[in-house]
TrEMBL record:
Keyword terms of this UniProt record: ATP-binding, Kinase, Nucleotide-binding, Phosphoprotein, Serine/threonine-protein kinase, Transferase
EC number: 2.7.11.1
Protein known as: non-specific serine/threonine protein kinase
Keyword Kinase belongs to the record: yes
GO cellular component labels: cytoplasm
An annotated Gene Ontology molecular function: protein serine/threonine kinase activity
Any Gene Ontology biological process: signal transduction
Family designation: Belongs to the protein kinase superfamily. TKL Ser/Thr protein kinase family. RAF subfamily.
Length: 402
C-alpha cells in the first residue's frame, strides 16, 4: 500500500526525457520512457536515470572527458576532430564518438549478425535527450531509422554496469522479436564510449500524440478497434515468447506508414521467469497494474491490465486519470479501486473487455489470446449492428482524486 506521495523508487530504473529546445517539466508519470516527435515521426526509448519526480531537467550528458573535449577551438571557431567521419554532426559529441574511426566497432556476443555497418549510417539531427543519451533521426541503407546513442558513464561503475545490462537486454530482445506489430530492430553496436541501437522510424508518431491531436473529438470506432487489435496481437506474440513488456502505454505504441501499430520501448521488459526480484515501479503509473505499484509479485497479467487502460484511451481519446497527478492516480487505483470512467455510449462488448483487463485480481484478467478473440468478436458484431461506427466520448463526471 502506498501512503499519498510517499513510496520508494528504484534508482537507475527511470529516465527524464524532453524534446530538445523545450523546457523540462518531468513528473513521475513520465519516467521510464522517451516519447518525442520530429516532423511527425516518433519513437520510444528507455534510458536509465536516478532522477524521479523532479521538476528540474537532469540531462547531464557528455560527462566523459573524451566526449567533452571531442571538439577543439581554433581562432574562436569549433573544429571537429580530424579523424571523425565527415558525415557526422560536427558539434554533437555523442554522434562523433559513435562515428569516430579511431575506435573499432564492437558487436554483442552471439549477435554479431546484428552489428551495424557505420559506413552505411547517415546521422541526422538529435530530437530528444536524456540523462545518458540522445535519440536521432538517421538513415541506414537509405531507410529512415531511429538511432539511440547511450554514453558509457566513466566515473560511475555501477551505473555503467546497469546501463550496459539494459543495452544488452534490449538488443537481445529486439533481435528475437519478429512481428508486424512490434517495432523492427535493425542493428546495434558498441564503441569505446557509447552504445547504439537502431530501429525503424515510425513516421506517424505515437498513439498518444494521435489521440491528443483529436482533442476528444468523436473517435471512429472502426479505427479504434483496428488499433486495439494491432496492440493485442503484438502483445499476444510477446506473451507466447514469455516476455513481459512492463510499460505498455499509448506513448509506446507507434503508428507506422501503413497505419499499423508497432509496440516499442523494450528497455524495461523482462523474461517472465525472472519475476522473482524484478525491479518494482518500472513503467508509468497511469497504466500500471496495482500489484506492480504495491511491489507484489506479478506476471504477464500486468501487461493485460495496461492494455485495458490503452483500450479505454483508444475508445475515448482521453488521457487516463487526466484530472489527477500520476501519484494521485496510483493511490486511487490501489487504495480505492478507481478505474477510468467508461462512457455511457461505449459498446457493451468493449466495456466488458476493459473491465476484465483491469480487474484488481490478475487471475480474472484474460490472456492476450482471449483479448484478441473478444476484440475480433466485438469487431464483427459492431460492424454489422452499429449503423455509424463512431461515437462521441461523453464523460459526465470528472476524474478526480475524490
Amino acid at each position: 500500500m502506498i501512503e499519498g506521495a510517499q513510496y520508494r523508487t528504484m534508482e537507475y530504473e527511470f529516465t527524464d526525457y524532453h524534446r530538445l529546445g523545450e523546457a523540462s517539466d518531468m513528473s513521475v508519470e513520465s519516467v521510464g520512457s522517451l516519447q518525442t516527435s520530429n516532423g511527425g515521426g516518433s519513437v520510444s526509448m528507455s534510458i536509465i536515470d536516478s532522477s524521479v519526480g523532479s521538476n528540474n531537467s537532469r540531462t547531464t550528458i557528455l560527462m566523459h572527458p573524451d566526449l567533452r573535449t571531442r571538439t577543439r577551438t581554433h581562432h574562436g571557431h569549433s573544429v571537429a576532430h580530424p579523424n571523425i567521419a565527415s558525415h557526422t554532426l560536427g558539434e554533437d559529441a555523442l554522434a562523433q564518438a559513435l562515428m569516430d574511426d579511431r575506435h573499432p566497432t564492437e558487436g554483442l556476443a552471439e549477435y554479431d549478425e546484428w552489428t551495424i555497418d557505420l559506413r552505411k549510417l547517415n546521422m541526422g539531427p538529435p530530437f530528444a535527450q536524456g540523462a545518458f543519451g540522445k535519440l536521432y533521426k538517421g538513415a541506414y541503407n537509405g531507410e529512415d531509422v531511429a538511432v539511440k546513442i547511450l554514453e558509457r558513464p566513466e566515473n560511475n561503475i555501477e551505473k555503467a554496469q546497469v546501463l550496459e545490462q539494459q543495452f544488452t537486454q534490449e538488443v537481445k530482445m529486439l533481435a528475437t522479436l519478429k512481428h508486424q506489430n512490434v517495432v523492427r530492430f535493425i542493428g546495434a553496436c558498441r564503441k569505446h564510449m557509447v552504445w547504439c541501437i537502431v530501429t525503424e522510424y515510425a513516421k506517424g508518431g505515437s498513439v498518444r500524440q494521435f489521440l491528443a491531436r483529436r482533442q476528444n473529438r468523436a473517435v471512429p470506432l472502426k479505427l479504434a478497434l483496428k488499433q486495439a487489435l494491432d496492440v493485442a496481437r503484438g502483445m499476444e506474440y510477446l506473451q507466447s515468447l514469455g516476455f513481459i513488456h512492463r510499460d505498455l502505454k499509448s506513448d509506446n505504441l507507434l503508428i507506422a506508414t501503413d497505419k499499423s501499430i508497432k509496440i516499442a520501448d523494450f528497455g524495461v521488459a523482462r523474461i517472465e521467469v525472472q519475476t522473482e526480484g524484478m525491479t518494482p515501479e518500472t513503467g508509468t503509473y497511469r497504466w500500471m497494474a496495482p500489484e506492480m505499484i504495491q511491489h507484489r509479485s506479478y506476471n504477464y497479467k500486468v501487461d493485460v491490465y495496461s492494455f485495458g487502460i490503452v483500450l479505454w484511451e483508444l475508445i475515448t481519446g482521453m488521457l487516463p486519470f487526466q484530472n489527477m497527478t500520476a501519484v494521485q492516480a496510483a493511490f486511487a487505483v490501489v487504495n480505492r479501486g478507481v478505474r477510468p470512467t467508461i462512457p455511457q455510449d461505449c459498446p457493451t462488448s468493449l466495456s466488458e473487455i476493459m473491465t476484465r483487463c483491469w480487474d484488481a485480481n490478475p487471475d480474472v484478467r484474460p490472456s492476450f489470446s482471449e483479448v484478441v478473440r473478444m476484440l475480433e468478436e466485438a469487431q464483427g458484431e459492431m460492424m454489422t449492428t452499429v449503423r455509424k461506427a463512431r461515437f462521441r466520448c461523453c464523460m459526465t463526471l470528472p476524474l478526480t482524486a475524490d
